[in-house]
Amino acid sequence: MSRFVSLPVTLAVALRVLAQLRRDRRTVAMLLVLPTALMSLLWWVFSDVPGDSFDGVGPALLAIFPFTVMFLVTSVTTLRERSSGTLERLLAMPMGRGDFLLGYALAFALTALAQSVLAVGVSTWLLGLEVPGPLWQLTLVAVVVAVLGTALGLLVSAFASTEFQAVQFMPAVVIPQLLVCGLFVPREALPGVLGAISDVLPLSYAVDAMTALTTADAVDGAFGEALADLAVVAGFAVGALALGAATLRRRTP
Fold first, then answer.
1. Averaged pLDDT, 210-224
2. 62-98 burial, b for 16+ CB within 10 Å, e for fewer?
3. In this structure, are residues 30 and 73 in contact, taking their beta carbons and an 8 Å threshold?
4. Cα–Cα distance, 73 to 24 (Å, whole number)
5. Where is the major localization of this protein (predicted)?
6. pTM for this entry
């Protein structure tokens, strides 16, 4: 492998992935429709509950649903490339592991953008989710968190041998983060050990960023606070991609 990343090769990989997604209607439906459908179901669940319960949990789940969907789809799709021998054939060409992973990340980032615009639009305009600031800020957070799910999915696919094993990583990687990210119990109210664990998990900062944008009394300064949390999320995504490039195998044993 003569080089780690080449922009033309990375873009070619991204275009190839997008072309594959276009032919796979079920995966496209899952990526684009499922987070919005889950937000709609959440609104329905709280529709007869007094108060603003939907506004309380909706913003966090607006980040969590895309994160989870992108993690699942990316991990399974990447493993399929390796188990079918496609990855080995691609890496035999003048393409590095970094090109492959960044191409996948770019393709799914564009998908995450469409996914997030749809989910945020439906949640705020149709479902009545209260957002004090501009919608593009909320969309930016949702996109970055979805990219984090993509990066983690690419990383764990390197350690799975079958699609079933890739799915099994979800309880190990996603669910613990859901439990301590502040969705059920405020992070400051967690026991000491769990609070420390929460501080080193990226989904905690994603929820903090959403919370800053949707519950701040004053919009001024809220975006700056969200950006600080978002930088942590982006750092985790970059780290996951780098580690994934270092551990990616050409074929499944």
1. 73
2. bbbbbbbbbbbbbbbbbbebbbeeebeebbeeebbbb
3. yes
4. 12
5. membrane
6. 0.87
Residue 251: both structure tokens together: 């074929």
Under 8 Å between Cβ of 13 and 154: no
Of 234, 228, 204, 197, nearest to 105 by C-alpha is 234
DSSP 217: S
- 7-64 pLDDT per residue, tens: 888 888 889 888 888 888 888 888 889 999 999 999 999 888 887 788 888 888 988 9
Q: To 10 degrees, what angle do helices 53-83 and 202-215 make? A: 150
What span, in angstroms and rounded, lies between the C-alpha atoms of 64 and 47? Answer: 20
**Secondary structure (DSSP) of 92-111:** TSS--HHHHHHHHHHHHHHH
Encoding tokens for residue 223?
Answer: 């975006």
